[in-house]
Fold this protein.
Amino acid sequence: MQACNLAEQPMDCKELLPDTSRNTADMATSFLLENPGYINHFIDLTFSEDGKYPMRASRVVFLFFEQMPELSELFLEDILQRMQHLYDASALRNMLNLIKCNLEKLDEDKLGILVDMCFKLLENGKVQVAHKVYAMDILYKVSCSIPEIKPELAAVIERSIKHENTACRNTGGKILQKIYREIA
């Protein structure tokens, strides 16, 4: 589903993303803030298999919605659906962060998709630590409105953090402490 396409003249958004610097991301975000009709182009680039561009575009998409949160709701459903098949690990990290910042805008059906995806990330031994940390954080936040998932979340975290690095164990431990206090 394409939410909107207001761009009057086609443009190759890759031209705005020559490198990974913060300055480049900020300039591309400024362009997008002045020309929001190009958001679909950046979202499509985020989910493409076009080498270096998904990470760069995803960062711009995140920064854009950080500054224009009122528009994010129009695109979250599409982004969430496409995240399940995201090619680039860095782009996935940026999109998980975007979703984490906009959880309240997801309806129950979309939360169900997100919860399932995050549990799969936690249980996958080949997933990057950052993805697992975002998944734990998202699942904990969702569990505050859907407390029925707290026991399952605690069990999955207990199982999955045993063999993880310090960052993952620390985040998991903190979330477990919160869950145990809330369940008790």
